[in-house]
Amino acid sequence: MKPLVECAPCIVKWIYERTAPSASEEQRYLLMRTILGVLSHEFNASGNVGLICKRTLDAVSEFVFASKAHYNGIKAKTNKAVEELLPASRGFIRKGNTPRERFERACYLASAGNVSPIGAPSGALKFPELEEVIMGRGSMPLLIGDVYGAAKKADHVYFLADNAGEIGFDSLLIEELKAMGVKVTIVVKEDPFLEDATIKDACYFGIDKLAEDILTTKCVFIPDETTSLLEEAYRKSDLVIAKGVFNFEALYGEDLEKQVIYMLKIKCGPLSQENNAHIGNFIIKLESA
Questions:
Q1: Are 110 and 37 part of one and the same domain?
Q2: Domain check: are 34 and 168 in the same one?
Q3: pLDDT tens for the 289 residues of the chain, in order
Q4: What is the DSSP string of 182-215?
Q5: How far apart are CA 32 and CA 28, in angstroms?
Q6: In this structure, are 118 and 210 located in the same domain?
Q7: N or C: the chain end with fewer CB closer than 10 Å?
Q8: How many domains does the chain have?
């Protein structure tokens, strides 16, 4: 995704607020100078938002590591909260009368689980919109394109996860994909990485027993900017499922030569413009090859 001008202050806010909690006042000046220094070189109209964020995060990796203890508590509480919602979530999916309906319902929950804010979370993530969907009171995420048709034709899905907690709802979608005979390779973050899901979070929800493989990426996955192992698995897949804003910003509009299903909450003006959706909407969007 190409950046708009207003993406710059958003990048600063997203990275600074997430990496500053464990820093001293002196370190925070260094942190901000580093972020602004990278942006001064990398931020331009022809760039890729995900790649700009990746290079900025790489430059402040010591602060990401230092924030591990802060986020471990948030992730543990979030995982527990999602675990308590899974029985009702499975019941919601089972109300679908056809494989298509059940798959789309699983997509609704996977999308509505994308609740982490642009600013740093101060505590366990909460899922009020998803709970409303489960209870039949809330609006369903916007479904853009035949995502079931794309999944039904797929042999192997490359699944890019996003946050802890949220990955519990992803596990329900993976269950539906497995029931359709689709193989899944899931990609999570190397530990530590802020509130994002790691192998520990994936295993908490039993994804190690569902997926063909669990791979890790140091930051956001970008083709040709990653490890040979991740690149090989990506090339072997015939459909990508990309969760969250970060993955959308890294992949959308980049001519990937394969179909991608994006699932995220519209959290800012540029995303709203790009998807013709209101801020606050959840979307499930198929981008054709």
A1: no
A2: no
A3: 999 999 999 999 999 999 999 899 999 999 999 999 999 999 999 999 999 999 999 999 999 999 999 999 999 999 999 999 999 999 999 999 999 999 999 999 999 999 999 999 999 999 999 999 999 998 999 999 999 999 999 999 999 999 999 999 999 999 999 999 999 999 999 999 999 999 999 999 999 999 999 999 999 999 988 999 999 999 999 999 999 999 999 999 998 999 999 999 999 999 999 999 999 999 999 999 8
A4: -EEEEEEEPSP-TTB--HHHHHHTTGGGTSSEEE
A5: 6
A6: yes
A7: C
A8: 2
CATH number of the domain within which 131 lies: 3.40.50.10880
Domain of residue 237 covers: 69-287
**Does 80 lie in the same domain as 221?**
yes
3-state secondary structure of 225: coil
Structure tokens at 236: 């072997």
Is residue 2 assigned to a domain?
no
CA distance 154 to 177: 10
The answer, as to whether pTM is greater than 0.85, is yes
Q: Which residues of 141-175 are buried (b: 16+ CB within 10 A; e: fewer)?
A: bbbbeebbebbbebeebbbbbbbbbbbbbbbbbbb
Q: What phi and psi, each to the nearest 5 degrees, are found at residue 43?
A: -80, 115
Gap between the Cα atoms of 87 and 70, Å rounded: 29
Asked if the structure places residue 1 within a domain, the reply is: no
Element at 41 (helix H, strand E): helix 25-42
How many C-beta neighbours within 10 Å does residue 80 have? 13
